[in-house]
Write a structure and sequence with these properties.
The complex is a heterodimer of chains A (288) and B (264).
Chain A: H1 26-40, H2 50-69, H3 72-75, H4 79-106, H5 108-113, H6 119-147, H7 153-183, H8 187-200, H9 208-214, H10 217-225, H11 227-240, H12 254-280, H13 284-287
Chain B: H1 3-6, E1 24-38, H2 43-51, E2 59-73, E3 77-81, H3 88-96, E4 103-108, E5 112-115, H4 128-138, H5 143-157, H6 172-185, E6 190-193, H7 202-217, E7 221-225, H8 229-235, E8 238-243, E9 246-252, H9 253-260
Parallel strand pairs in B: 3-7, 3-8, 5-6, 6-7
Antiparallel strand pairs in B: 1-2, 1-4, 8-9
Chain lengths: 288, 264
Amino acid sequence: MTTEIANRDFRRPGRGRGLLDVPKHTFLLRLLVDKELQVRYRGSILGILWSYVKPGVQFIVFYLALGVFLDLNKGLENYAVYLFSGIVLINYFGEAFGNGARCFVGNGDLIKKIYLPRELFSVSTIGVGLIHFAPQLLVLLIADFVVGWHPNLMQLACAVVGMCILTAFAYGLGLIFGVANVFFRDSENLVDLLVMVLTWVSPIMYAWERVADKAPEWLLHLYLANPITVSVELFHYAFWYPTLEYEWHVPPHLLSMWTPLAVVIALVTVVVGDLLFRKFEGNFAQEL
Amino acid sequence: MSWLDNDPELSKPMPPYVPSTEPVVIKIDNLVKRFVLRHTRSMKEAFVWLLKGRKGDLSEKFNALDGVSLDIHEGERVALLGLNGSGKSTLLKLISGVMHGDQGEILARGRIAGLIEVGAGFHPDLTGRDNVYLNGAILGMTKSEIDENFDSIVEFSEIEQFIDTEVKFYSSGMYLRLAFAVAVHTDPEIFLVDEILAVGDEPFQKKCIKKIKELSQRGKTLIVVSHDLDMVKRLCERGVVLENGKIVEDGDIRDAVSHLRPDG
C-alpha cells in the first residue's frame, strides 16, 4: 500500500524557515491577531474603542502639561500636531515592541504543546500594533485637515519609510527581548524602561534643535542615529511641516544619511533577532 | 476483564509481528536530548554566579534521550513504552517539533498531527468554536477545510451545546473530545498520541480507538505513548521500550509488553 509519501522529501520537524514561513500561514496569522484582540478586550464594554481613548487622553495630558504649562507651544507652531505625530509613533513602537517581548512567554501554553512556526507570534504582535495604530493615524489626519495640511508626495513617502523603519526596529527588538524573556523574565521589565527612555531621547515632546543647541556634535550624531528619532522626524516632515506657514528644517542630512542608516540599523536588528530566535527556539518548550 | 475484551474488533489477536518494508516516514538517528535543570531564573543570580568566578554549577544536566535511533515506516502502529521518566513523551515531543534535540537528527515526511497533551493548542479564553479554527490552522488546515469539516468536528466531539463557551470552563474530558475531533479531521499522515485518552469516558475512548483503527487501516502511521499495556497490545503491532533514554527493546508488541511486565 505504498503511497506517494515515498517520493516526498524528509524535513526536520520543528525547524521553521523564519520569516519565510509567514506568507504560507496568512490564515493562521490572522487567527492569532484575532485571538490577541479578543483576549485583550474580553469582557470590556468599550473594546477596541480603548485604542482611541488611551492616546486621546495621553495627548490631552501632554498637550496641557508640556504645551500650555511648560510653554513649548511658543516655539512650535501647531504644537498639538507636532506632539501627536510623535506620540502615535512611539505608542505603536511601545505596543509592538512590548508585546513582541512578551509574546513567547504569553503564548507558552501553545508553544509547549504544539508546533507552529513561532515567529508568527512575533509577526502577529506587529499586526495587533498596526490595528491599534490605524485609529490614532486617523485622529492625526483629522487634526491635520483642521489646521490645514498640504503635503507633497515626497513627504507622504517619508511617512511610509518612517513607518517601515519603526516596524522593522520594533519587530527585531521584540524578537531579541522575547527570546531573552523566555530564559530571564527580567527582560520584560527592561522593555518598559527602554520604551520610556526612548520616548524622551527622541524629539517627540520637544524639537530636535533643542538638542542641537545644547549637545556637542558627537552626541547629536548619536541622537540622530537612533532609528526612532529618524522615524519621528520623518513623521514630522510628513504630518506637521506641511501645516506650517514658515520654513522649518529637518535635521541636516536626515534624508541622505540618517534615514539610510536607520534602515540599516533596523534591518540588522531584525537579522540579529532572527538568528537568536532560530538558535534558541528549540529550547522554548522546556523553558516555559 | 476490561471493556476492551468485549469489543469484537479489539479482542482479535494481533497477527505475528513482521518488520515493515514500507517506506520510512520517520528516521531518528542517534538522538540526544539534554535537559537543563536550571537553578536560577533571574539575571541577578546569573550575574552573581559569574562574579564569583563561576563557582558551583549554575545548572544541572541530564539526558532525557541518550542516543536513540529508530526508523518508523508508513502505516506502522508503534507504541512507545517505558516507566515514568524513561523519555518516551520527550521523544514524541521531538517528533512533533515542539522541542529540538541537542545531538543527532530526526527526519520526517508527511503531515504530522499530535495529541501530545490535553488541550494542546487551545487558548482558554477563546470559545470552542474559535479554538477549532485556531487549532485546525495550527495543524495545517486551510480556512475552507475547517469550514467544510466544522460540523463534523463538532458532531464527533459531542459537545454541540458548549461550542460557543470559552474552553476554560470545559472539563478535561470535553477538552479531549474537541482536541481529538480536530486532530483526526486534519487527516494526518502521522498521528502522535500521548497518554491522553485516559481522561475520556469509556464510550468516547471506544470511539477514539475506532477512529484510530480506521486511520491506521487507511495506511496512516500511528505512534502512541501509553501506560495502558492492555490497550496498546490491541492497538499497535510494534512496541519500543525505553529505559533511561535508551531503547532496550524494539519489536513485537507482545515482547515489549512482557519486557515491562515480566510476571504477566
